[in-house]
Amino acid sequence: MDLLALEESLSISINDIPFTITMHTPGSESDLVRGLLFTEGVYQDLEIHPKIILVESNVDGYPIKMDVQIPEGNLLKEFSGTRSMTSVSSCGICGKTELDDITSISSLQEDGILDAAMVEKMFEKMRNHQSAFDQSGGTHAAAAFNLQGELIVVKEDIGRHNAVDKVIGSLIYEGKLNQAKFLSVSGRISYEIVSKALVAGIPFLGSVSAPSTLAVETADKAGMTLLAFCRNDKLTVYTHPERMMQLEK
């Protein structure tokens, strides 16, 4: 007997028009959809929440089809045709027909300083909430913190990008998006993870693993402080180190 990470497909439509199919771990579907539409730039109103309808569940009771009702005048961009295939658990931007110019986003304006000594403690807090990973070893996690190192929300999913979208969606629903200053992730930092954090206005992004070249380049241009290899009481600062309070030697 062995415990495996759950992976199910979730079909998302907007006003009954197909948007995308994402492979995800069941749970927090409304957070996932809310965060995905926000980070994709389709719907970004923080006050008025769209109506998310459960259309269909599978035999195990897991949602497999959801529809989001949004007045057409409130949609920020044409979404039909922006995705042409399934978004797999390892890639959140797979299936997109074009990439938005994320570097066109205004540089993040952040005067706060992050104490390097708190980084390991924040990752420990995230790790303590990874119950699905403890059971299966097959899920990722993302968590949001304020600059005091206080945990705001943590989510797990088989996809790194889904975990981030769930965190952002939860922050929006709770009205705490502006409180989130540090986003931690359990996997590598790719362009898509940086882009989601930038759209959410989160100035610090850290991972236990490595970043990609495009992730570092994008973070640098947009004014984000990117940290990687945050483990074993060490970390590497790749961009904008001026926002880090250095440890005393």
Describe the structure.
The structure is a single chain. By secondary structure, the protein is α/β, with parallel strands linked by helices. It has two domains: 8-101, no CATH class; 114-245, 3-Layer(aba) Sandwich (Cytidine Deaminase, domain 2). It is built from six helices and 13 strands. It has a six-stranded mixed sheet, sandwiched between helices. Strand 10 (204-207), helix 6 and strand 11 (225-231) form a beta-alpha-beta unit. Helix 4 (160-173) runs parallel beside helix 5 (191-199) and helix 5 runs parallel beside helix 6 (213-222). It is globular. The N and C termini lie far apart (49 Å).
Which segments are poorly predicted (pLDDT under 50) over 5 or more consecutive residues? none
Shape: globular
CATH structural fold name of the largest domain: Cytidine Deaminase, domain 2
Mean pLDDT across the residues is 89
CA gyration radius, whole angstroms: 18 Å
% residues in beta strands: 25-35%
Q: Between the first and last Cα atoms, what is the distance in angstroms? A: 49 Å
CATH class of the largest domain: Alpha Beta
Number of strands: 13
- DSSP helix fraction: 10-25%
Helical region count? 6
Named at the architecture level, the CATH assignment of the largest domain is 3-Layer(aba) Sandwich
* Widest beta sheet: strand line-up: 8-7-9-10-11-12
User: What is the domain tally?
Assistant: 2
The run of helices and strands is EEHEEEEHHEEHEHEHEEE
